[in-house]
Amino acid sequence: MNNIRVLLLLLISFGVLGFACSKKQVVIGRDNPDQEIQKCIKLSDKKHFKEAIDCLEMFKTRFPKSQWGMEAELHIGDNYFRKKEYLLAADSYQAFLRLYPMSPKADYAHYKTGLSYLRFSPKALDRDQEYLEPAIMHFEIVQRNYPDSPYAELNNNYHKEARTRIAKRHFYIGRFYFKTGEYISSIPRFLEIANNYRDSGLGDKALYYATIANLRLKKIDGARDTFSKLSLDYSGSRYINELEGRMLRAVK
User: Fold this and answer.
1) What is the C-alpha separation between 46 and 82, in angstroms, rounded?
2) Going residue by residue through the chain (252 aa), what tens digit of pLDDT does each one get?
3) Which one of 77, 173, 227, 241 is most buried, counting C-beta atoms within 10 A?
4) Residue 8 falls within a domain, yes or no?
């Protein structure tokens, strides 16, 4: 019994000691910013992200006008990103952009803001996707203003991913309306894809369903319009042959 009690006391002691060590704060001096910043970088490299963030917050108050001090928000954002706290990461990158909009690292801040919003957005199509639009906005800033950015290729890939996710959500909702017979509600969703998300790979399929929906509503002119758009914009689509017979029967 005494042995168990001793063991418990030792475990508690080690737990308290470990807690105390984890709370130990790095102190940033005031002399050499290039030397002091290494304390924060080492914490980040060791995956002590919270401690690294605290270190960087202290550093930027000590050396606000140094190069490292000006970029501290970027590094804070990177640590939040690595912690998978994506909204806090995005806030930090945007704070940097507000302070230094003309910085040579503005392209990185926009790119990582977009990626943070993209990572925060759930992949499930029935979940809220409100952060995909701001993600796209930041990706497009990089495309438009920094075409030669070293992050351009990654940025463009993630931009396409974000747009495809939005298109898939529109299609998911459109198909739901279609399957429940709410054809009037389904058509705008399908047309949104065909008009604004052609790069999603869903454009021809969306026009196919929009045409069927118009036919079931007996809106022949609407069906002609969507079928014509399908034939012109996606001339190699398999859906053209599937619809030709229906269109001929509808106009007789």
Assistant:
1) 12
2) 444 444 444 443 444 334 334 445 677 777 888 888 899 999 999 999 999 999 999 999 999 888 998 899 999 999 999 999 999 999 999 999 999 999 999 999 999 999 999 999 998 988 888 999 999 999 999 999 999 999 999 999 999 999 999 999 999 999 999 999 999 999 999 999 999 999 899 999 999 999 999 999 999 999 999 999 999 999 989 999 989 888 888 776
3) 77
4) no
Q: Would residue 198 count as lying in a domain?
A: yes
Tokens 């040579």 appear where? Answer: 104
Tell me if 191 is assigned to some domain: yes
Cα–Cα distance, 158 to 104 (Å, whole number): 21
Task: For residue 161, give both structure tokens.
Answer: 């991913």
> Residue 23: inside a domain, yes or no?
no
d(CA 151, CA 68): 21
- Given a contact cutoff of 8 angstroms between Cβ atoms, the answer to whether 220 and 240 are in contact is no
